[in-house]
Amino acid sequence: MLITASLPLLQSRQCGCGLAIGPTRIHLYHQCAIVQPTWLAVQQQLCDDFSIPTPGLLQRRHIWMGIRPHPRLHQGIWDIVAIKLLAACESGRKNWFDRVLKLQHATVSAARRRGGGRGRARSSRTTGSIHRPPMAPGPAMIASVSQVVLAEFWSGLTEIASLGVLPPAWLQVVPLNHPFLHPDSTRSHWVVSSYE
Fold first, then answer.
1. What angle is formed at CA 25 by the lines to CA 83 and CA 149, rounded to 5 degrees?
2. CA 144, 104, 99: angle at the middle one, nearest 5?
3. CA 20 to 30 Å from 98, out of 51, 73, 113, 146?
């Protein structure tokens, strides 16, 4: 299961963080400073809940190919974690480029107004939003978008837990201390493991 195979646009886009050399999937979905806090949160969850001591435990292949980093992890839950992590990384990439585009549009519109020309009508891209305000690339934007990625990952897991779409049989076999998603003490519904 190569999850990233369904992301064809990656080769045509460079990351805006300024740390990548060329447009690569490896950077955008693993090494970028924007996604690193989320990768570290996943690794921390493994260490906290399963007491797996290991720096470097979580490798790219574990997420990209859905390979469990530890045999005690439930494969189905791990597949969900991998998909939600990559979806969060993609959301961060889109968030970054959307903010940059909004800044560019706002800059062009302001220049047109100053030059006496008529600017285009304001659109949602130029005005920004609570979630994607126009922002110049740099450390502040990296910090802001990395928080979006982290929130997107955990909200994706919360959504899965609350929708009731997981196979009912999993409630009986997934350990109560399983990282990320686990049954409640009565094994009647899913709980998202605590995160900070």
1. 50
2. 25
3. 113
* Secondary structure string (H, E, C) spanning the chain: CCHHHHCHHHHHCCCCCCCCCCCCHHHHHHHCCCCHHHHHHHHHHHHHHHCCCCCCCCCHHHHHCCCCCCCCCCHHHHHHHHHHHHHHHHHHHHHHHHHHHHHHHHHHHHHHHHCCCCCCCCCHHHHCCCCCCCCCCCHHHHHHHHHHHHHHHHHHHHHHHHHCCCCCCHHHHCCCCCCCEEECCCCCCEEECCCC
The pLDDT value given to residue 138? 81
Residue 1: which of 55, 47, 68 has the closest Cα?
Answer: 68
CA torsion, ordered 8, 13, 19, 24, to nearest 10 deg: 30
pTM of the model: 0.79
Per the CB < 8 A criterion, the answer to whether 26 and 10 are in contact is no
Q: How far apart are CA 20 and CA 152, in angstroms?
A: 23
pLDDT per position as a tens digit, 86-121? 999 888 888 888 887 887 777 777 777 777 665 454
